[in-house]
Every structure is written in structure tokens, then in C-alpha cells.
Amino acid sequence: MDICRHFSVVLLSLVVLSGSGCVARRDLISLRDTPALQSATWTEPIVQPGDILHVAVYSSDIEAAAPFNLQETATPNALNAPQQHTLEIFLGYLVHGNGQIDFPVLGAIQVAGLTLPQVKDILEQRLRSYLRDAVVSVRFINFRITVLGEVNQPGTYTISSPRITLLEALGRAGDLSPYANRTNLLHIREQNGQRIYTRVNLQSGEIFSSPVYYLQQNDILYVEPNRAKIAAVADPATRVITYTTGVLSVVTLLIALFRR
Question: Which of 12, 81, 154, 189 is the most exposed place for a label (fewest CB within 10 A)?
């Protein structure tokens, strides 16, 4: 009977030792505590220096509208660009450090700090002196987000639409790896020349009301590793010491039990 009891204690110790680097099932589940109803508010992204805008001007008088479109005034070399995205960037309007774009005929226009609908309204008002029925379309060309850390496909992604959520961004990056810490994701955003750091718990339903649930251009997501990953990639010497200490503890326990 004592031998069985001793064997059970030793077996339990070995199980604890071997499971020290495993990932618990509860740590692999995102959105565990989600309410039945949760609202999320999207706000228009703000134009920032460094953004590239695509602006198209339309009018019933096509010839009169032509000087206001870069596509009509581009050089032949630009039009022979090998890739469509490269061509779009070349034909876009760069927002300079002073927050302005250089627009044909109209000159410098302040756009930083505005939303795309506001930029559209300003351009249409300025164009009324030249076109009676001007309609302007404005969109981002280089709306990008970066996802780093414990995801299956980390990298920088160019988004065609500015309306993208944090969860959609993780989906583009191939979802979280088994070693992702789902309770402490780091979100980094540059705003008014400052970096804003926000921590997000993906296992909480409060993520949908987070101010960073909807992403803006140049946002960065960093998914940190959990303790199991840190243990798996620790310094080899540290791992040897850890496992050796655990084995010696079990051996010591075994000797102490059988001496009784």
C-alpha cells in the first residue's frame, strides 16, 4: 500500500514537471467573455503627414476637369509603371510635413488633421470657380497596418478600405499562434506627433468598445509570447538548469519517501 502511495506521489511530480511548458486550453480561446450585445463605434481616419491620397475629379465637362487629375497630366514613364499599385502611389498626392498637398491649378491645400469627407468638401468648394458640377473622390493609397509577434504571418499589410477592425487585422496575419498571449496585446498608434500605447485583452468582450478596435493608418499590433513560448526558447543553459533542478527534486522526493 505504501509503495502504491509513493508511486502516485512520484507520478504526480513527473506530470507537473512535464506539463510546465504546455499551453492550457483556456489560454488558447479568444473572446471567452463576450456579452450578447456589444456596440462598436467607427470614426473616420484622420489624414496625417506622410499619407498618400488618391484624388479624382469628375465633371460633365471632361476636358475642363482634365487639368485637375494627375492621370491626365502624368508623364509617359509613369504610365508605363510595371505594377498598378506602384502607378497609384506615383499618381497620388503626398501629404507633406506641413500637412499640405500640392494640387494642380489650386496650389497648396491644407489636409492634415481632416477626414477624407472633409478633404472632399474643401476640394469641391475650391473647384467651383473652375467647374460648375465638380464631384471629387478621395481615398488613401498607403493605408497600412503592421502586425508583429505571435501571429502566423507577421508583416505590413496595405488595406484597400480604411474601415478595418483589430480582429480583421489579426485574420490577415494568419491568426494568432498557439503561443500568443491573448490577454495582453499591445496596440501602438501615432497621433499628433506622439505614440499612444494601449493594451487589449482578446479574451474579454470589452474589446468591442475599445478605442482601438477600429484601426487607423500606420497602426501597429504586437502580440507578445506567453510563458510557454518564453520557456521553450529560453537560453539552453537555463533550460538545462531548470530541468536538472526538477529531476533532482523528484529523485530527492523519491529517496525521502522510500527511506521511511
Answer: 12
Q: What is the pTM of this model?
A: 0.67
CA 15/CA 222 separation, integer angstroms? 33
CATH architecture of 25-44+143-225: Roll (3.10)
Question: Could you read off the pLDDT tens digit of each residue along the chain, which spans 260 residues?
Answer: 555 555 454 444 444 444 445 555 455 555 555 555 556 678 889 999 999 999 999 999 999 999 999 865 544 444 444 444 454 556 789 999 999 999 999 999 999 999 999 999 999 999 999 998 999 999 999 899 999 999 999 999 998 888 899 999 999 999 999 889 999 999 999 887 789 999 999 888 788 888 899 999 999 999 999 877 666 666 555 555 555 655 656 666 566 656 66
- What is the H or E stretch that residue 93 is in? strand 93-94
Whole-number Å distance between alpha carbons of 59 and 133: 6
Reduced to 3 states, what is the DSSP secondary structure of residue 25?
A: helix
Architecture of domain 52-140: 2-Layer Sandwich (3.30)
